[in-house]
Design goal:
single chain, alpha/beta, Alpha-Beta Plaits, Rossmann fold, six-stranded parallel beta sheet, five-stranded antiparallel beta sheet, elongated, magnesium, amino-acid biosynthesis, HAD-like_SerB
C-alpha cells in the first residue's frame, strides 16, 4: 500500500481496539479504497491502516466522519518518506504547558491583560511583533532575576520527554524555535536534550527589565527561516522535516515542512495545518512517523 492512515488515541481517556480500526477500514472501502488490516504500533493507542485509491484528504475526511465523537486523531500520508530526520518545535503551549509571558504578567498584576493579547496573537488576530512589544513593555522595572525564578513554573507537555528521547535515539536533529525568551528555551533544551534553541532576548538595564526586546524579533518568518537553515545545514530536503506548534506564528513552518502538526492548536491554525493532534499527547508525533512500541524511549 502506498498510503497509510494512522489512528491515535489519548490513552488516558480512550482505548483503540480492532472494532474502531474496522470502522475506519470500512469507511475507506466504502469510497472504493483498497485497505490492509490494522497494523498496531502500540496496542490500544495507535495503529496504521494501509490504503490505496484515495488521496489523503479524502481518507481523513471519510474516517473522521465514521469515527465522529470518538477522541481519536487521524492522519493520512504517503508511506514513502514518512520518517523525518529533523524536528523543529515551538515551545510554549507545545513542548511546555505555559505561555511564559503570561506567567511573568503575574508579577506585575497584568496576567489577564497579557494573556488576552497572547490569545489574539496566537490565533492570528493581531500582529505578533506588535503584541510582543506591548506585552514586554508591561514588565519594565522587574528585577531581571525573576526570569530564573520563573523557570520553576515550567511543566512539560505529556509525551514531550519521550518524543525527544526517542527521536534523538534514532538520529533525528531536534531544534526548539520560540517567539518566547532565551532564558526559558535554553533551560528546556538542556532538560529535554534538544540540539539547539532559538528565541528572543529581553533587554536588561541596571539589573532590571527595560520593557523592550532585542530586534529583530523572532516571529513566524524567523521560524520558517530557521526550518530552512536547519534542513540546509543537515543537508536534507525540507520534506524530510516534521514541525509542531499551536499558534499562528507557527503556520509558515507547519505549512513548509514535510509534515506540519498543529498540536492542540488555535482554531485558525488547526484548520490549515497538514495534520492536527487534538486528543493525543506529544507521542502522537512518533506514531505519525510509524514508530513502534519497541522503538520508543519512555522518559
Amino acid at each position: 500500500m502506498r498510503q497509510v492512515l494512522t489512528l491515535i488515541a489519548d490513552p488516558a481517556v480512550f482505548t483503540l481496539d480492532d472494532a474502531v480500526a474496522k470502522q475506519a477500514r470500512a469507511a475507506l472501502a466504502d469510497l472504493g479504497a483498497q485497505t490492509a488490516p490494522a497494523d498496531w504500533l502500540v496496542p490500544s493507542i495507535a495503529c496504521d491502516i494501509g490504503f490505496d485509491g484515495l488521496n489523503d484528504d479524502q481518507a481523513q475526511a471519510a474516517v473522521a466522519k465514521a469515527l465522529a465523537g470518538m477522541p481519536v486523531d487521524i492522519v493520512a500520508q504517503p508511506v514513502e518518506g514518512r520518517r523525518k530526520s529533523v524536528l523543529v518545535a515551538d515551545m510554549e503551549s507545545t513542548i511546555i504547558q505555559q505561555e511564559m509571558l503570561d506567567e511573568l504578567g503575574d508579577l506585575v498584576g497584568a496576567r489577564d491583560r497579557i494573556a488576552a493579547i497572547t490569545h489574539r496573537a496566537m490565533n492570528g488576530e493581531i500582529d505578533f511583533k506588535g503584541a510582543l512589544r506591548e506585552r514586554v513593555a508591561l514588565l519594565a522595572g522587574l528585577d531581571a532575576g525573576v526570569l530564573t525564578q520563573m523557570i520553576g513554573r515550567i511543566t512539560y507537555m505529556p509525551g514531550a520527554a519521550t518524543l525527544i528521547a526517542t527521536l534523538k535515539k534514532h538520529g533525528v536533529y531536534c531544534a526548539l524555535v520560540s517567539g518566547g525568551f532565551k532564558t526559558f528555551t535554553a533551560h528546556v533544551r538542556e532538560q529535554l536534550g534538544f540540539d539547539e534553541d532559538q528565541a528572543n532576548d529581553l533587554i536588561v538595564e541596571g539589573g532590571k527589565l527595560a520593557g523592550t526586546v532585542f530586534e529583530p524579533i523572532l516571529d513566524k518568518d524567523a521560524k520558517h527561516q530557521a526550518l530552512i537553515r536547519i534542513t540546509a545545514a543537515k543537508r536534507v530536503p525540507v520534506a524530510a522535516s516534521i514541525t509542531v506548534g499551536d499558534g499562528a506564528n507557527d503556520l509558515p513552518m507547519l505549512m513548509a515542512a514535510g509534515m506540519g502538526v498543529a498540536y492542540h492548536a488555535k482554531p485558525s491554525v488547526a484548520a490549515q495545518a497538514r495534520a492536527r493532534i487534538d486528543h493525543g499527547d506529544l507521542t502522537a508525533l512518533l506514531y505519525i512517523q510509524g514508530y513502534r512500541a519497541e522503538e520508543i524511549v519512555v522518559a
